[in-house]
Structure formats: C-alpha cells, structure tokens
Automatic annotation (TrEMBL):
InterPro entries given in the database record: Creatinase/aminopeptidase-like, Pept_M24, X-Pro_dipept-like
Name listed for the protein in its UniProt record: Peptidase M24 domain-containing protein
Keyword Manganese: yes
Keyword Mitochondrion: no
Source species of the chain: Meloidogyne enterolobii
GO cellular component, one term: mitochondrion
Stated family: Belongs to the peptidase M24B family.
Needed cofactors: Mn(2+)
Length: 345
C-alpha cells in the first residue's frame, strides 16, 4: 500500500506514464530486450549513479553488454528544458529576485568586508535568509586583478581599499538558478579610470539588453557579434588602445578582451541545456544571460597603462517573451551613480 502511494506520487510529480519499483527493473528490461526496442538513456546520469550506487552496476552492464540498442537522452531532455513553462518562469522570477536583492544588500551592508571570502559568506547568508535553498554555484568574488581570471573561485584574498570587486553569484530555488554579475569599488567611489571603463561596459550592456528586447529572430551568436562591434566603437572613443587600429584589428582585440561568450541558456543549471546550439533562433519562453566583459591583464601592452589590471563584467538574466523580453534582474543595482549612492548611504 505504501509502495503504491509512492509510485502514484512519483507519477503525479513527474508526469511519466508508467512508474515501476526498482525491484522490477531487471524483469522489465528483459522483456524490452526480447522485443528489440531502442531505449534513450541519460548516459551521464547513469555513469554518476553507478559510481555512488553499486546496485546499479548491473543496469549499466545490461545496457552496454546485453545487446540492447540505446541512444543518448540528453539532447531530448535539453529540448524539454529549453523553453520554460509559466510555472518555471515564476520560479525563475523569484530566484532572480532573491539573487538581485542579495547583491543589493552587499552594496548596502557588506562593503566593510576586507577579504573576498567574507563576501562569499555574506552572500550565502543573504540568499538563504530570503528563501533560497543555497548558492547556485561557487561564487566568483574577485578583487582587483583577480577579476581577470574568468572563473576565479579561490575567493580568499585580501581586498585593497582601491580595488574594484567583481561578484558573480546566484541562488538556487527549488532547482532553478539565477546568475548575476556586478562590479563595485570597495571604497564606495570609482576612481576616474575605473569609472571611465565601467561607463563603457554599462552602456554596452544597455545596448545589448535593448537588442535582446527588440531584435527578432534572436540568436546568441549574433548577440556576441553585436557586443564585439559595440565594444570596438566604445573603446575607440575613450582612446583605450595605445595606437590607432583598423576596424578589423579593433574587432580582433575586443574578441581577446572578452574571451567568453556574451550569453548562455539558464534554468535548472547555470549553463543549462548545453546541447542547444547558439546559432539558432531563440523562441519565447527561453531564459538567457547577457554578460559582456572587459578583462585587461597587466601584461596587455596593447592597452594604455592606466587601464591594465582592471576586469569588469556585468550580467543580467532575461526571459524572452512573445512581445520582447523581461529583464529578470532589473532590480539589481547596475548604474554607477546608483552604486555609489547606495554604498554611501
């Protein structure tokens, strides 16, 4: 009776037509083998399960040594996960709200912290106290030149009073994650050089968000191309490079300055549905990130000396809709005037 209730509950939650207890697996698979059916299998999940659940090794052996025809299930699952249902969209709104409010709290209350690790702890507390289950991934808290390491997760270095801090963090709410990046001066005031570069990136982000809201069909690779073109124009206007460059040279340099894509799909994982290509049209219901970055390592001699050692990225989460796009992280403070105002309050 208890087992029947469990199976009924699993069927209701999952939407799967037929749910059987694991004790019947071998009997069921034997009948499938006799019928010569082809199965779709989440190979990665099975391999992980075999490591932690020795009882499942016989399942692995049956699939791979029993003459059973099988094909990867991952691509099919990604297709199902790619477009979010209304309920999923509501969950994403909430996880983005919590992530945004937690980063805003950091600007208001957490900037007395003088070590990257303290900010990690502060963000974890802020996300959980607002209802999140946990942080979505090991956050990047990178002060000064550390921000030029794209996936810097050491987050344990002292913060100097002249540093800008890059924070890439998100929260996990019932299996759905936010992914937000903001940069701010730990002193509460950007230096003139920091402000000049931040203004450029912030303007690029505004242009990219407008592009996402208005351009159809929307393809992520085209969005990246648009970012590089806007970056080339903007950096030329502030005499960023040490010498004049042709448009082709500018594009090449800007491609180096932002060595990651400007966007990825988001949902139940940070880099969600990885089998979905970035050169195809994105339909309504898809959630993406928009995250331009400019990273100038100290040894980059193509750039004027005063800009070297600065790394900035701004990242927002966006739901594509029938009429445009909804910026799910719009309430996360981004404009430099607002950053300084909040930190000064």
């Amino acid at each position: 009776m208890v087992l029947l209730k469990i199976l009924t509950k699993v069927r209701a939650i999952s939407g799967v037509d037929q749910v059987l207890p694991i004790s019947e697996f071998h009997k069921y698979m034997s009948s499938v083998l006799k019928n010569g059916a082809a199965l779709s299998v989440d190979v990665d999940a099975l391999m992980d399960a075999v490591v932690y659940e020795p009882d499942l090794r016989s399942i692995h052996q049956m699939l791979y040594n029993g003459g059973l025809t099988h094909q990867p299930l991952n691509d099919k699952i990604d297709q199902l996960r790619w477009r979010k249902s209304k309920h999923e969209q509501d969950l994403m709104r909430e996880t983005c709200r919590i992530g945004s409010e937690s980063l805003n709290a950091l600007l208001r209350e957490g900037c007395e912290e003088r070590n990257e690790s303290n900010i990690v702890g502060f963000l974890d507390h802020q996300c959980r106290r607002r209802g999140a289950d946990r942080l979505a991934y090991p956050p990047v808290v990178a002060a000064g030149n550390n921000a030029n390491t794209i996936h810097y997760i050491s987050s344990n270095k002292p913060i100097r009073k002249t540093d800008c801090v890059l924070v890439d963090a998100g929260c996990d709410l019932h299996g759905y994650v936010s992914d937000i990046t903001r940069c701010f001066p730990i002193s509460g005031r950007f230096s003139a050089v920091q402000r000049t570069l931040y203004d450029v990136l912030n303007d690029i982000q505004s242009q990219l968000l407008h592009y996402v809201q208005t351009v159809r069909p929307l393809r992520l690779n085209e969005l990246y191309k648009h970012m590089v073109e806007r970056m080339a124009d903007s950096l030329s206007s502030i005499v960023f490079f040490r010498k004049d460059l042709s448009q082709k040279e500018l594009i090449k340099e800007c491609d180096r300055l932002c060595p990651h894509h400007v966007s990825h799909y988001l949902g139940m994982d940070v880099h969600d549905t990885p089998s979905i290509a970035k050169n195809i049209e994105c339909p309504p219901g898809v959630i993406i990130t928009v995250e331009p970055g400019i990273y100038i390592r100290p040894e980059n001699t193509a750039v004027r000396n005063e800009f070297r050692g600065i790394g900035f990225r701004i990242e927002d989460d966006v739901l594509l809709t029938e009429t445009g796009a909804e910026i799910l992280t719009a309430n996360c403070i981004r404009d430099p005037e607002d950053i300084e105002l909040v930190m000064d309050s």
